[in-house]
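Suppose you are handed a protein chain with no further information: no name, no annotation, nothing but its sequence. What can you learn? This example shows the usual starting point.
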Amino acid sequence: MLKNKSNQYLFKNKINLRRKSKGMLLRESILMLISGLILLLINYLIPKKFELINSFKKNIFEILNNLWEILINSFDILIVIFIFITSLISIILIYGSISRLVKIFLKKTRKIRIR
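A reasonable first move is to predict its three-dimensional structure. Written in structure tokens, the prediction is:
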């Protein structure tokens, strides 16, 4: 059975209005502190991090340059594929038109069949 409720009461009583206890808040804040300290420790243990940061900009530019070259090469590939496809279609069209012209000019005489 469907209840026809108004849209303004669609989410009524769905929100959890209960506050978290102080123990739960303390536990969550300790977990957040430990997670932050572990991440700082991991960052501290990475060797040559300043060289990595300095080479990051150079690497990004090299990646963008490589992507640009890939786009240019793929454009060339698309042009070559277009040339092959249009050549094939033009050959088919020319063959079809020549075969029609031959059929028109070398028209066979109709044979009358007697049954």
